[in-house]
Amino acid sequence: MNWQQLSGTEKSKYFIDEYLRIREFSTALCSRLEIEDYTVQPIADVSPPKWHLGHTTWFFEEIILVKCLSEYTRFHQQYRFLFNSYYKSAGQHWKQSQRGELSRPTVEEVIRYRSYVDNFMVNYLSNAEIGDDVLSLLEIGLHHEQQHQELLLMDIKFILGSNPTSPVFSEKPLGFASPVNQIWRSFNEGIYSVGASDGGFSYDNEKPRHKNYIYSFAISENTVTNGDYLEFIDRGGYGHAEFWLSLGWEWVNDNHIGHPLYWRKIDNEWYEFTLHGLNLLDLNAPVTHVSYFEADAYAKWKGVRLPDEQEMEVYLASSIDDSVEENEHEKKHGDESGVYHPIKGDAQTGQVWCWSKSHYSGYPGYKPYQGMLTEYNGKFMCNQFVLRGGCIATPPSHYRHSYRNFYAPHQRWMFSGIRLAKDI
Amino acid sequence: MNWQQLSGTEKSKYFIDEYLRIREFSTALCSRLEIEDYTVQPIADVSPPKWHLGHTTWFFEEIILVKCLSEYTRFHQQYRFLFNSYYKSAGQHWKQSQRGELSRPTVEEVIRYRSYVDNFMVNYLSNAEIGDDVLSLLEIGLHHEQQHQELLLMDIKFILGSNPTSPVFSEKPLGFASPVNQIWRSFNEGIYSVGASDGGFSYDNEKPRHKNYIYSFAISENTVTNGDYLEFIDRGGYGHAEFWLSLGWEWVNDNHIGHPLYWRKIDNEWYEFTLHGLNLLDLNAPVTHVSYFEADAYAKWKGVRLPDEQEMEVYLASSIDDSVEENEHEKKHGDESGVYHPIKGDAQTGQVWCWSKSHYSGYPGYKPYQGMLTEYNGKFMCNQFVLRGGCIATPPSHYRHSYRNFYAPHQRWMFSGIRLAKDI
Amino acid sequence: MNWQQLSGTEKSKYFIDEYLRIREFSTALCSRLEIEDYTVQPIADVSPPKWHLGHTTWFFEEIILVKCLSEYTRFHQQYRFLFNSYYKSAGQHWKQSQRGELSRPTVEEVIRYRSYVDNFMVNYLSNAEIGDDVLSLLEIGLHHEQQHQELLLMDIKFILGSNPTSPVFSEKPLGFASPVNQIWRSFNEGIYSVGASDGGFSYDNEKPRHKNYIYSFAISENTVTNGDYLEFIDRGGYGHAEFWLSLGWEWVNDNHIGHPLYWRKIDNEWYEFTLHGLNLLDLNAPVTHVSYFEADAYAKWKGVRLPDEQEMEVYLASSIDDSVEENEHEKKHGDESGVYHPIKGDAQTGQVWCWSKSHYSGYPGYKPYQGMLTEYNGKFMCNQFVLRGGCIATPPSHYRHSYRNFYAPHQRWMFSGIRLAKDI
Amino acid sequence: MNWQQLSGTEKSKYFIDEYLRIREFSTALCSRLEIEDYTVQPIADVSPPKWHLGHTTWFFEEIILVKCLSEYTRFHQQYRFLFNSYYKSAGQHWKQSQRGELSRPTVEEVIRYRSYVDNFMVNYLSNAEIGDDVLSLLEIGLHHEQQHQELLLMDIKFILGSNPTSPVFSEKPLGFASPVNQIWRSFNEGIYSVGASDGGFSYDNEKPRHKNYIYSFAISENTVTNGDYLEFIDRGGYGHAEFWLSLGWEWVNDNHIGHPLYWRKIDNEWYEFTLHGLNLLDLNAPVTHVSYFEADAYAKWKGVRLPDEQEMEVYLASSIDDSVEENEHEKKHGDESGVYHPIKGDAQTGQVWCWSKSHYSGYPGYKPYQGMLTEYNGKFMCNQFVLRGGCIATPPSHYRHSYRNFYAPHQRWMFSGIRLAKDI
């Protein structure tokens, strides 16, 4: 959406609509939760859902209201501290690993906080004279909230999944995946441009669009399935050091890892915990919730490799009918479809984020955001790997093919998967 | 209460009344909490209040219903695992430090669990033919629940106290303590008997009553006040190794300890967080929430020492009018008085548990309970120190002078205080 | 030895002889070591032998030379810091767990340091006018050095024992223990005095001698043998929570403990690493290198208990022919006999330190040393258990029946063993 | 050296000479050490020098003797385990962080081990019929030993530098660096080839030579000096989060980092510990022993950036007179010059390894070694950053411009430094 070309009144209307739509979706996502589910933090990576609802609100408060509305008074003095995630330039913040120690503010208080900020925001946005610089910040704030919508689903899944009573998030039964035929798509050696073009939203880390010399390669149209991955397990993949990175081998042994995060073996049968409950493992569905270590080991075991992120972007951008693709993506998201688990393994993207072999770092000519948002991306460019392609939990209007998601190589509570590549 | 001498019907009535009174008090204590307060676990020592409500119920389920009622079916199969605290003979249990990771069962489900078990229990107790052995187990179960009532207040205080918004548990204003004159009471050298007599309830660790050779000593009628302790701080007590045990000195330095747990210095003024809110420090009130390390260092700084537990019991038992004393104790408890903080520093016991210099171990001739309850006391007789005298949070009908409370030397989230002694 | 009654010249001669004898024995003990053996620290508890040689020298430097000899100049300014173990009043000290990180000073430099201090000491002691207060400090210094001689053997054993090549300390073959018949000795209820009398050396923690009310008990004349203990293992003792203290059960499981420290199972045969090499386990010899947790669990499994330290002292002091006993003890020490391993399981003391069930704390009326040595004993009276009776590595002239050795309940690199007791 | 073109006899002579020269240099490097210096391991990253001497010997034993000499018997059965660093395919290995716990084998035994293997090796190499495949392994073994020669100097420096007595490795006085004028060299946008060509030795990770699209950039001819870096410190660089990666900021704060590894502030004066002793900080000399975090923060503070490894290789390869450059490099190494510290800050390479912003990963088309050596490089391609250019401790005949050194971003005990780059 190229809103810069709209008139002031149109901009105002556009952003009020977007703001309300996106803000409401965050609370709607949580509507199935019990109060207790909003509050706990089973591991440091996973934040309590009520914290996400507070933090995304804090974000608008800090980047817009406090800066632009002279008459604005913060809802609660302590929230500045409690809902700051990691922005050192915004003052001190509560420690990430201790978010689950806080019973207060209650969910109800957080909801009141959201309303308070929303009222100010909508009021402020009604003003047709707001400059594009502020609207650009607002647009980042909306994408930030959408990022947290995906995090909410990841975190809710972890909270429910670590509970021995296996609570069900959605009662809607999951369908079954269809069998998949592996197809390789080939690309020729040459110079390819990668990165976000001007026009349309993107984060600072997707720019500038720039040239890369890429050698010829093939990439799989399908992601690795549960059935494929089970074969790796059954052939002893977790027990053979030769497939593993050195740090990966330590991770496997120190943490007694032997299968993807949500798999469970019960009475000699494999199950998978999903947001739709504990189901028999669907062998045709994409494997998900694997770490970089596991993705890399699987690829080595198959005698191939993971793609780098440039190859992945070239592949994603080359879809025969890109507009159809994006529409498809729209439909795939849980919000629309009510399906919160990847069950399409055939020629599809947008089901699972695929690990690339690329370390997350700045593109040539990378310019970070200025001000508080300089901390948004650049400072994490260390010991993280890039994932590409979006997943079932990614809000469709938030996604674009230049999107660079990133996680540490041992993390796997996101909907991560494996797309193979090879030299040709 | 010597219920063994009652008739079967009287026993039945007596125990049904006690059971209902005590069970209701647990939920009543929590009635001021938000759902979120029931759920979190800021540190491993502190359990979520809903866990206490479930665990005390599990206790009756395991020691009475499952054993004595052949038709009994457990409320939920997983609760056997989730609400077992540490009884290895009762099967596996959820890890203590991870209780706060569980959003389910919800508070509402736990309350339903309590009702389910209560119905079975009252029904079962209506039977006038129950043997005294089962009633003895029941009596332990009731005292166990009362122990957890004190833990509930301790844990609620920690949960609220670690929240930067300092939530208030009771709106009732705290009064002020009166000034205290230190009085020493002396005891002559000789043989003294210590421990619980037969008749009346006591735990296995209070028996048998036995003789001790005690040298002449004096003990303070008053516990150390906040004002006394502040002088220790102001004179640099935390910075001088010579007052501290070796492990205590490490504890102070590794954890940057410089004052009792709930003291806060704000704008150069000392405050204390209490269940009645954040108040200016009352210099006449007993110091509380100090570790054994702090109690011992304070005594050394004063040139005296902590009493041992035998001295403390001799002192407690020697109160001029013991029956008045016990009545007083009755009134002091928060339940009756609505006061959840020690504010009487003058000749009183029952305000704060006083650290003894005695390691917690079995008395000569100690016989642990049999069966599952063999794990109740004996297995903790290592690296714990005994505290004596009861506190404001101890249910009066739960207390007796032979009571041996015990904690590790670094712990201080209980209402612990300091009573000095010296050789004479 | 009651040296106070000697003349000044006799005192001088007595102490010079003792000083030289004891100091030389420390280096003699190490004479079998390679330079590399003097230097390493496999775990924090174990110090490099060269550190012991330096620290015992530092002790004389700090308590005598620096205080009493105005013209004395320290051998090396950094040694004050490097060889201070934990005396806060003597300034800062190098961290205990990092002693093995230091390649310098070399062994040769430490030996030069010893000679330097020895020369000053002998010179100083030649003076017949030295006051008894200084000679008392000197006497403590000599006992301190003897304590470290036992530590040297413990630490050397650990250093060699943790090496996969199992180096041999003494080539002298170990004999075999004779079979043992368990005999219980009984004591009547009554008041018993315990603690060191005046006259003769003792540490501050052994005083004052004081009365105890002791109930009738029986104590085993023999310590538990390897054969006895093996039965505990074979019957699954390490796998049954009911025998273990709560902290002990955690220790067993967290550290995968399944046998005494130096036992090794090779090709289904039990061996024991000793200072005489890796030998087949001698079933008649005393079990040694067990923790308090193991000793306590073994006693519970046998249906009896550990003695408390008062019972143990009463027992030790009651030996039918005490003078013979002490002579025997003399001969048992490795120095005289060349045997550095307990192989006598029959009616003997002095082979292994026996765990008592008593927590290490001050006797009634305990007065710690003044000055720097106030840190010698008192500050460790927390979370340690007392062991009694001496061991094969204890220098005979260092031992007396009132001796209170102490270790944390998980430690077991000392020559610790088990003597059972029971109520009668 | 293109030895493949030599005759069998010439090859034999060439490799025997090289083998003896390189093997002797390892022990020569250690000749200034005390036995104790060979033995300790102050931190997990630093290995005891005697371990390096053993491990490099083990390497030849495992890759050549055991494989190619049927009559060969290992020197000691346990060494296979003790001197394996991390090769899972070569069986179990002693844990890296515990190398300093081993007093045995002694230095003398390790030297005997070296002689034993050297005799077999020279004997074996006298055979003119050895295939090129084996000679290629041997060549890797020689480069492996040279890598460990650099590690030896790093580790010796750390061992001596962490000792409070600051021992001196070389008595030769260090000269002073000349003042430096910063000069930027520019490169145009275009396709550049990077990586090792065939002919000449290189590791698997330097291949294949491949094309990169590189944007125009400038790179500094000089590395950052101590004086430059001191300004960063004095301006509060370590206290401002905005210059630091998120992980770097944690590292700085958790470890209280405020200056390069070997800097010491004494009486308000900056000193630097070097292998030539503790010297006043030379402001004109290159800053060294900085982490990636520090290099990156310094560059951000200067408003520029670190080069990526491709830019660095293009720069290194473009030296006007490359052969002169390599000769210069030859002379710079401590071995020839007796200088073990970087003191040339002007237009020089080879003084300090310069951090690139590139994550260490496989080049397009990367093929790891086969067999045991597959573990040599590939398995470390995770969470490491590439350094380029060689340092004063790198054996000259070991170095080439395609060399990819790599370390984790917090490590800094190697001779690492900073070369700045910028977009133009």
Automatic annotation (TrEMBL), chains A, B, C, D:
Key words of the record: Iron, Oxidoreductase
GO biological process: ergothioneine biosynthetic process
Origin organism lineage: Bacteria, Pseudomonadati, Pseudomonadota, Gammaproteobacteria, Alteromonadales
Pfam families in alphabetical order: DinB_2, FGE-sulfatase
Pathway involvement of the protein, from the record: Amino-acid biosynthesis; ergothioneine biosynthesis
Domain Sulfatase-modifying factor enzyme-like as annotated: residue spans: 190-422
Keyword flag Calcium: no
Protein name (Swiss-Prot/TrEMBL): Sulfatase maturase
